[in-house]
Amino acid sequence: MVHDTDGQPVPLLGFDIAAVPPSQATLGELPFFSLPEGYAAQNRPHVRRHARFPFRLGDGVHWVEGASWNAMLAVARDRRRDKEFSERELRRNLEAVLAQAGAQQVFEGPLRRGIYYGPELKEEIGGGFIDGVNLDRDARTSVHVLRLADRNVWVQLATTRSRAGLVVVEERPFTATARWTGQFPYLSMPEGYDEGNRPRQRDFDMYPFWTGEGFEEVEGRTWAGQVMAGKRARSMHEVRRNLQAMMAEAGGELVFEGRMPKEASERYGPDLKGTFSDGTGYSWHDYESLVYRVPLPAGREAWVHARLEYGSAGWVVVEREAFMQTAALLPADALKRQLDADGRVAIEVNFAVDSDRILPGSQPQIEQVLALLQQAPDLQLAVEGHTDDTGAAEHNRTLSRARAASVVAALVGRGIAASRLSAAGFGADRPVADNATDAGRARNRRVELVRR
User: Fold this and answer.
1) pLDDT tens readout for residues 352-384
2) Do 157 and 28 lie in a common domain?
3) Would residue 423 count as lying in a domain?
4) N or C: which end of the chain has fewer CB within 10 A?
């Protein structure tokens, strides 16, 4: 269902292409027709390998997908001193060349700009085809269809007294260019797209997937990345169709499609969102989302959250896995040896996501620090918290300080004098490894004991 900016439903209409007489015209490449002398695209045209556009028809619209071209038309820059824009001249010329090619006019009426900027279409069409539809609300609009032996061409021309918008779509079936790979992160890029920034992959983390009713917090191996193409070539619809094709190939189940409620999006803070921002950004409610659950061999599963915006796209993939501990407990005597040798030692303390709450599994390490302090009553320690460089710097400093304070509080709560301990947080300011790798970021996320 599509609604306009007034909230009114917009009928989605079918069309019988057989009702259009066939044409024998020979066409070249998009947009197939030259512009009248003295006219040109005001900005560089948007040319997409595969997109869709809702052409005006009757009291609603008709979807057509295929290769597309759209532009705002105006007087050519080199003619602006001696030529004025003429709606009549431009329209007469384009209608004449379309008629000569054998096109049939199937609509004439108002643009109804509000259709293209309603809640469902404002990103994909209002943004993606802005040069073709961003005119006066009731701009004079005509739609023409050219039926050829091997393809159909749709043309929408909207004109005002000062400019015009032109959309041309060469109707063709969709052909997927991305494949399900069978190896993590499983998704591949559509032809002509790339990952933009380096994707962020972690051996173990958690991402919350919106199901329409609540969040499914999935732990395991994670991947977050962008899906990028040239500014005037990227297509929301092309990314969507390729993702749908990969999900069909993998047997994925669609869990959610649409916009996440704002109040749900705000449940998680900038630390977690920053970790996955290349894939799903910070404002989860501001774009169309697709969420899938995908079965994997041996009873495993992966989850996918795709972000679709006219200006960019991205996705997060999590392969659900149980936590496998790779860190070892440092007993009190080992802590003392390292403090004596280096003056500092990193301890294995884990916290809840974006929180200073110490996880129960870290209690044995706290017990060993307690034993160290009990065995050495004159020992005084600074507890220092550190993070990797994911997320906002000030937030990381605040979080690391709070986590260090939680460790101090746990020790004071067991009888250690508060005067023997202090807490400090440095965020990502004091890395011990390269934040460009998962292994480096894991080393940088640490709590250290420093002899005072």
Assistant:
1) 877 899 988 888 899 999 999 999 999 999 999
2) yes
3) yes
4) N
Residue 44, both tokens:
């560089």
- Closest listed residue to residue 73, CA positions, set 57, 48, 94, 52: 94
**For range 117-125, the mean pLDDT:** 93
Contact between 285 and 291 under an 8 Å Cβ cutoff? The reply is no
DSSP labels, 409-443: HHHHTTT--GGGEEEEE-TTSS-SS-TTSHHHHHH
Is residue 410 assigned to a domain? yes
Type of residue numbered 324: M
Please check whether residues 15 and 141 belong to one and the same domain: yes
The dihedral built from the CA positions of residue 87, 92, 93 and 95, taken in this order, carries a sign that is positive
The domain spanning residue 352 has which CATH number?
3.30.1330.60
Same domain, 228 and 344: no
φ, ψ (nearest 5 deg) of residue 369: -65, -40
- Residues 16 and 151 reside in one and the same domain: yes
DSSP 140-169: EEEEEEEE-SS-EEEEEEEE-SS-EEEEEE
Those residues with Cβ within 8 angstroms of residue 246's Cβ, 6 or more apart along the chain or in another chain: 176, 178, 179, 180, 186, 187, 188, 252
Q: Are residues 115 and 38 in the same domain?
A: yes
Last residue of one domain, picked from the residues 289, 320, 351: 320
pLDDT (mean) for 72-83 = 96
Q: How far is CA 135 from CA 113, 190, 234, 419, in A?
A: 7, 32, 22, 70
> How many whole angstroms separate alpha carbon 223 and alpha carbon 180?
15
Instruction: Look at the alpha carbons of 275, 281, 282, 288 in this order and tell me if their dihedral is positive or negative.
Output: negative
Residues 403 and 267 placed together within one structural domain of the fold: no
Select from 320, 340, 362 the last residue of a domain.
320
Could you tell me the residue range of the domain that residue 139 belongs to?
2-171
Q: What's the average model confidence in pLDDT over 438-447? A: 83
What is residue 232's predicted lDDT score, i.e. its pLDDT?
A: 67
Q: Rg for the chain (alpha carbons), in Å? A: 30
- Do residues 294 and 251 make contact, with C-beta atoms less than 8 angstroms apart? yes
- Both 311 and 338 in a single domain? no
Phi, psi of 201 (to 5 degrees): -120, 135
Reported as a pLDDT band with limits 50, 70 and 90, residue 242 is: very high
Q: Determine contact, residues 447/368, Cβ cutoff 8 Å.
A: no
Q: What is the dihedral of CA 75, 78, 84, 90, to 10 degrees?
A: -30
Give the phi and the psi of residue 272 in degrees, each rounded to 5: -65, -45
Residue 342, classed as helix, strand or coil, is helix
Residue 359 covered by a domain = yes
Q: Which two tokens stand for residue 3?
A: 């609604």
If asked whether residues 280 and 390 sit together in one domain, one would say no
Indicate whether 178 belongs to any domain: no
